[in-house]
Amino acid sequence: KINRGDITEIMDPNLGKDYDSNSAWKALELPMSCANPSSSRRPSMSKVIHELKECIEGMTKNPGLETTTSLDTSVVPMAR
b/e string for 19-42 if b means 16 or more Cβ within 10 A? Predict the structure, then answer.
């Protein structure tokens, strides 16, 4: 269904039509690009942050949605 360009099939039905489809596509494509097997084709973290901010901006422009967002850009190594 995604291959046919129909993002509505994977969206939360509770949202109805109250979401920006362009932001939803970006939110879907971004993690897919981060998982690219070729490291040279993966986006930089600054690009990821930029894209996430654009997604959030697209969502907040929709007057039918009430959003609360928080984006922490700090990088802390995880314990193994």
Answer: bbeebbeebeebeeeeeeeeeeee
Pair of tokens at residue 3: 């291959």
User: Using one digit for the tens of pLDDT, what is the confidence trace for 32-48?
Assistant: 999 999 999 999 999 99
Global pTM value: 0.59
User: How many other CB atoms sit within 10 Å of the CB of residue 45?
Assistant: 11
Distance, in Å, from the CA atom of 50 to the CA atom of 55, rounded to the nearest integer, reads 9
Token representation of residue 5? 């360009």
Residues in the chain: 80
Three-state secondary structure call for residue 80: coil
